[in-house]
């Protein structure tokens, strides 16, 4: 019973926090072309991390352990070009604020670069307004749906050392596996994309969603931005995703939320909350299959990208069965249906970076950095 209560609390907290953040998002509903232009270059933001000669604005969270404040980048840096606040309100100086040695960014004493103490990430005394139930009994993890983590993190631009390779999953251009979609794109025909999932698909906690600099669009909007740049303005989209929902809800609502949009391509992203609720892999797969069936019953030519979701914080109660779902989605693959393995991407990233480097709430939402991985990976299917 205690596990069920904890899972219910976790889902309720995420739903409530989503509703609050949705208020700010409603003020800025079209960020595909918006305030980000004053801060960031979406062209450089869209270059796949596994191909880039220069890594732009890799986000990292400085953690203080035994008096030393450090952070680690995905690749070893040949040269660090800039270090700035993730919310772009300050640039930090090499030698004064930071050095880079031994593969680590090391923060100088007296620097104003923010840090989080390791002992403040997991603890045993609840901090009202700042805590989520921990995975281990009697523990709590630092949690916030505000702009707290955006203000605490830093963005690093650097040139990686030569010869370093990304060893995680990479997408393959899907001309053969998504023939209808790619035919419409390359033929400059109208294409309707529908994003359908939970709070991750709505854009939580991208900076644009949170109405905070640098106002990066959500990852679905980044995908649309890149498709329009590559193929033209005839690419349109809808996003009926709702925070806190499971694939079962997606199945029940598909006929009213997705089918009327008459999509050519549906990008389905349920799984994070299903894993928290310990939904069995079989049920999860069948719920996703039911969404597909509801759409294809009306449009047999519709195609699908199924997202195996990012992983939750392993120390939080949200950590459940998420890592089992990619194998279930693979069983649904066929011509017209493919899987985007963000589970595998996140798993590989966590071998090199901390969870706090990639999260906007320290529990189950991506920050701008991990959201870019979502967009870059899916664009890899659609743009050669």
Describe the structure.
The chain is of the alpha/beta class and 384 residues long. The protein has a domain at 2-19 and 166-382: SGNH hydrolase (Rossmann fold, 3-Layer(aba) Sandwich). The protein is built from twelve helices and 17 strands. β4 and β5 form a beta hairpin. The longest helix has 24 residues, at 2-25. Mean pLDDT is 93; it is low at 1-5 and 15-29.
- CATH C-level class of one domain is Alpha Beta
Please state roughly what percent of the residues sit in beta strands, choosing from under 5%, 5-15%, 15-25%, 25-35%, 35-45% or over 45%.
15-25%
Distance between the termini: 50 Å
Can you count the helices? Answer: 12
- Mean pLDDT across the residues is 93
CATH architecture of one domain: 3-Layer(aba) Sandwich
Question: What does the main sheet amount to?
Answer: 5 strands, mixed
- Counted beta strands: 17
Rg, rounded, reads: 20 Å
Structural classification: alpha/beta
Give the ordered list of helices and strands: HHEEEEEEEEEEEHEHEHHEHEHHEHEHH
CATH superfamily of one domain: SGNH hydrolase
* Share of helical residues: 25-40%
- Could you say which overall geometry the principal axes of the C-alpha atoms support? globular
């Amino acid at each position: 019973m205690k596990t069920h209560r904890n899972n219910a609390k976790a889902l309720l907290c995420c739903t409530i926090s989503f509703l609050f953040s949705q208020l700010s998002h409603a003020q800025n509903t079209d960020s595909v072309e918006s305030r980000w232009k004053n801060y960031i270059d979406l062209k450089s933001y869209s270059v796949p991390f596994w191909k880039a000669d220069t890594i732009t604005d890799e986000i990292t969270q400085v953690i203080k352990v035994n008096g030393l404040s450090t952070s680690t980048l995905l690749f070893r840096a040949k040269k660090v070009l800039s270090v700035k606040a993730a919310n772009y309100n300050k640039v930090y100086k090499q030698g004064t604020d930071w050095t880079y040695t031994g593969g680590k960014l090391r923060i100088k004493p007296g620097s104003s670069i923010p840090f989080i103490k390791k002992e403040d990430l997991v603890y045993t005394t609840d901090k009202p307004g700042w805590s989520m139930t921990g995975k281990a009994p009697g523990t709590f993890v630092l949690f916030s749906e505000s702009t707290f983590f955006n203000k605490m993190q830093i963005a690093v631009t650097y040139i990686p050392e030569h010869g370093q390779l990304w060893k995680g999953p990479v997408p393959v251009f899907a001309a053969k596996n998504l023939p209808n979609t790619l035919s419409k794109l390359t033929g400059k025909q109208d294409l309707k994309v529908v994003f359908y999932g939970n709070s991750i698909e709505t854009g939580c906690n991208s900076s644009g969603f949170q109405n905070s600099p640098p106002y990066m669009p959500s990852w679905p909007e980044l995908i649309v931005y890149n498709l329009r740049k590559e193929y033209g303005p005839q690419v349109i989209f809808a996003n009926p995703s709702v925070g806190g929902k499971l694939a079962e809800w997606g199945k029940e609502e598909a006929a009213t939320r997705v089918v009327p949009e008459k999509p050519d391509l549906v990008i389905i992203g349920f799984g994070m909350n299903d894993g928290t609720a310990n939904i069995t892999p079989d049920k999860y797969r069948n719920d996703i299959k039911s969404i597909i069936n509801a759409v294809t019953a009306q449009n047999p030519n519709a195609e699908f990208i199924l997202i195996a979701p990012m992983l939750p914080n392993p120390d939080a109660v949200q950590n459940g069965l998420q890592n089992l779902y990619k194998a279930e989605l693979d069983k649904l693959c066929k011509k017209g249906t493919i899987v985007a393995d963000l589970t595998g991407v996140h798993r590989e990233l966590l071998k090199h970076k901390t969870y706090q480097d990639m999260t906007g709430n320290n529990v189950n939402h991506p920050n701008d950095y991990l959201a870019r991985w979502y967009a870059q990976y899916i664009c890899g299917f659609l743009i050669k």
